[in-house]
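So, could you explain the following?
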Amino acid sequence: MPIAITIGGILILFLLIARFKLNAFIAFILVSLFVGIGNKMKVLEIVDSIQTGLGKTLGGLILILGLGAMLGKLVADSGAAQRITTKLVEKFGKKNIQWAVVLTGFIVGIPMFYTVGFVILIPLVFTVAAATGLPLIYVGLPMLASLSVTHGYLPPHPAPTGIAVMFKADIGKTLLYGIIVAIPAIIVAGPIFTRTIKNVKATPLKEFLNPKVLTEEEMPSTLTSILTALLPVILIGISAVINVLLPDGNTFKEVALILGNPVIAMLISVLVAIYTLGLARGKKMKELMDSVSGAVSGITMVLLIIAGAGALKEVLIDSGVSEYIGAMLKGSAISPLILAWLIATVIRVCVGSATVAGLTAAGIALPLLGGSDVSPELMVLAIGSGSLMLSHVNDGGFWLYKEYFNLSVKDTLKTWTVMETTVGVMGLIGVLILDLFI
């Protein structure tokens, strides 16, 4: 019965979001009530669980996501993203243009939300394609593969960070393992796959073809742009490596762990960006603060949706459903990593949103960790990979890509959907290989 109630709740969640277009946060709260009542919880108990879930989830996320949004906005507005793109294209040349845009997408995609990175980089992709005479899909899709992978796999993006909080996974290790898994996934889904679809003709709409491009003087230097954009990754990554190499009690290790704490790393990065990308280049503090304020207001709904997923997770735990599922799956011969990936894939296909799919799957798959020795960091990556699978017409990213590249639905399915599926499958393969060594 608990399984039937949970499946019914998830189906209702799918219908409310995909069919009736109800706001995802409201849908999560309604489904949390349904699941709780169906499992014989009292209404006020359910409300308490919802409030607890909201608090636990936002408590671990709001600082990271808020600061991440600020950093992304500063990187975008300052021209640092444009500088990184143009310099890489210049260095790589036409022959290796795909690797330039792949690296650009990866660097810019880590501190930026997917949609922000897409909107900032796509006009530059159009310019590069026009200047080199190469097919637009051939140039653009590898960059989107990088953006997609960073969005689904790597903190400080919402879903992987939220899932890491739920599974009590180490953010530094998740980032480190995620980069290892991301590299082959991007190569296969980007440069290798796109060489098979050169015949798909994309023609960007006129309104997207003439974006404002900053002049050389208006942009920060290449070194400043790259170091500022990647500073949180550098701090968290160094901390993760030092944590493995040095013994407990070592002073240097303790300092590194403080600086590599995701909240501290993001705070330091934002403060550095305010100076290097703003004050040092003659911008006024008020202008910079207005910019970061706008960035935070833009992620309010993202935070609420993530909190809603946390509320459903808490109801699943408090009602005993998670324990029941965990006991039922305990003797399964299937790896918890594969099961978690499958759960995320099914939800992704039905709901569309990778963030919603990942966070919902995490709540359902949480009990799978209980009786296993699987790394929680790999569970985060398995769910993140599944959450990117089979993007189609109920995914906002599908339509964003289709409209900007001016493609038919059929060609969008042949290119975008296959790319996203390749990313998801490669992610699972990478996780399973890493599991052999961790």
Summary: The chain has 21 helices and no strands. The longest helix spans residues 43-78.
